[in-house]
Structures are given as structure tokens and as C-alpha cells.
Amino acid sequence: MKIINLSENHSVLNQFLKEIRSVEIQNEPMRFRRNLERIGEIMAYEISKKLQYKSQNVQTMLGVAPSAVIVDKIVLSTILRAGIPFHNGFLNYFDHAQNAFVSAYRKYRDSKNFDIYIEYIVAPDLTDKTLIIIDPMIATGGSMELAYGALLTKGTPQQIHLASIIASQQAVDYIVATFPPEKTTLWTAAIDPYLNDHSYIVPGLGDAGDLAFGEKL
Hints:
Layout: E1 2-5, H1 12-21, H2 29-48, E2 53-59, E3 64-70, E4 74-80, H3 83-93, E5 98-108, E6 114-122, E7 130-134, E8 137-138, H4 142-151, E9 159-163, E10 166-168, H5 169-178, E11 184-188, E12 190-192, E13 194-195, E14 201-202, H6 208-213
Parallel strand pairs: 1-11, 4-5, 4-7, 7-9, 8-10, 9-11, 10-12
Antiparallel strand pairs: 2-3, 5-6, 13-14
Helix pairs in contact: 1-2, 2-3
């Protein structure tokens, strides 16, 4: 499995990552959402370099020009709800992609232990398509695994790209052990070292869903 950490090479991505982490900046929900979106745009551009292309002629006002166009049939899949702004960034670039949505949430048995539930899924046929699963925070890898399992009921994709902004090292190890290595690439903007007692990523940034859309009961 390929693991690509985009923040290892300096770019404007690092500035956006710093802003979504900062307690002095992230309390502005509109700015937080926009930074998630901008990171999604950058990641979509980077993923586009790994897709398949074919040559196609385009008619201009003065002649014919050859152009390289994407061959992959792309499906963008988002884990609700924190993934929505991040998803929009991908959709800004892959504007012809189909879309899928999965709800995954933690239900705590006590203050530290929880189960992950999938309650909703809508998706097109995924057979032989390029599936990009979008989730800004991958803490344990459990939600990503369950979302992928639910999506497989809609067909088997040809290639899988897992897109996150921050993943824990534990989640990276879990994904490597769980997903098919020959057709999966994990993309992230940061890999943080550990999880706390509540399975939140440290240093992380907090609850991305709450920061984007407000606190929940």
C-alpha cells in the first residue's frame, strides 16, 4: 500500500493545516470550513497525477489542440458530517465525479469505550470505478473500514484512494493491515503520533465536525 503524506514537502498546504489546528483561528467556522475545502482541492490535484489519461482533440477557434483527459470513472465518497467541506474541495476539481455518502458515528458505552455505527449509505454502482473515500480525521481507522465495507455492497472498485487531513499512526497501521494493499493509496496531510484515552488524535485539532458545523448533543 502506498502512503503519501503531503505535508512532508513544503507547500501552501502546510499553512492551511496550521490554521485548522490553531485554537486562535479554528474558532471561526467559516474559515475552518474553507480551509478544509482548500486542503481538499490540493489533495484532489495531487491524486489527479496518479489517475489514467487519454489523449483527446479539442476544437479551438483557430484549430485543433490535443488534450489529456482523465479516463477513470471517479466516485467521491464522504463520511458525514465533518467530511462535507473536505468533499466540496474534491468536487471543485473532480466536477464530473459521481458521489456517495455514508454516515458513521461513535456510540459510547462509557466515557472511553465506543462502537461505530453505519446508519445511512447512498452510492452509485462502484464496479470497476476509482473510489475516493474522504474523511478529514482518521483516528482509529474503524470508521473508514466500516464505510468501505458498506460501500462494497454497491460494487467492487478498481482503485481506492483514502483521503484524510490528519491520521493517527495507529490508524495508518490499521488501514495497512485491513485494506487491499495492491489497489489502495492512503493520502494525508499529517500523521500524528498517538490517540488519547477518548481515541482523539493528539495533537490533532479537536472535533472537526463541531468546529465546522457547531456542537452536537
